[in-house]
Amino acid sequence: MSDVVHQHFRPAEQAIVKRLEEFSSGVERTGVSRRTDFLSPREAWIAQIICAKYSLAVSLYGGYEHAERQRAIISDVHEHPGEENFEVVAVRVDVPKGSSTLRHGDFLGALLGVGIRRDGLGDIAFLPDHTAYVFCTKQMVNILLRDFTQVGKTSVTIRVDEQPPISQFLASTLMEQKVTLQSLRLDAFLAHAFGMSRSKAVEPIRSGKVQLNHVLCVEPSQEIVEHDVVSLRGSGRARVMGIEGNSRSGRIFVRIGRYV
């Protein structure tokens, strides 16, 4: 696997690559399936690449259909895990009526602030009345129930909901466009995804307003790859849907998905 690791994955991804390799080799050796924590879309893609090398299956589930962050079960190709095997729990978060509107970032910051690990958290979904649903691992539930009492200055009440109203979740629409970039630098992608000049895209990156796959990135020259999710504080998120070769002039065709 060393050639795959060095050629296709970033240095910052080596920890998850190593963990997925260990899981896969263990499943291959023992025949016993393994379950990961929550993975980003990019990490889920890495899991599929690695498991294919071991001729293993990867099943993904994040608590509901089309969840962005999902847990993976690595298993023999003949196994078919059920939803209950993923141990994903939905926690309902009720906000008092009349409270100021709380955004995804407000909830995420509050959750991380009480000691919930990022990989223990899946999606944060919302109902039209601003009620939130936090999807988490079974191991994180007790911490949430004990310590998660407010978001910013707003007090909240929480409870486990075994039947969340998934059909009522406000859907994130992915608006896709195909553009050409001079390079695969993060600042070039950010400029096209959020409608700004490349020179202006450098400032929010350097000032800590940009995350790449949920991790702060302050390097404008960082190269983007397929399945990356880029977040710009206050403006939303965009995803690298595909990188599709070069134009005659040498520019790179990239499909960008913008969450709206």
From TrEMBL:
Listed InterPro entries: Nucleotide-bd_a/b_plait_sf (IPR012677), RqcP2_RBD (IPR040591), S4_RNA-bd (IPR002942), S4_RNA-bd_sf (IPR036986)
One Pfam family per UniProt: YlmH_RBD
RNA-binding S4 domain ranges (all copies): 184-246
Protein's name in the database: RNA-binding S4 domain-containing protein
Organism name: Sulfoacidibacillus ferrooxidans
Keywords in alphabetical order: RNA-binding
Membrane listed as a keyword: no
Listed GO MF terms: RNA binding
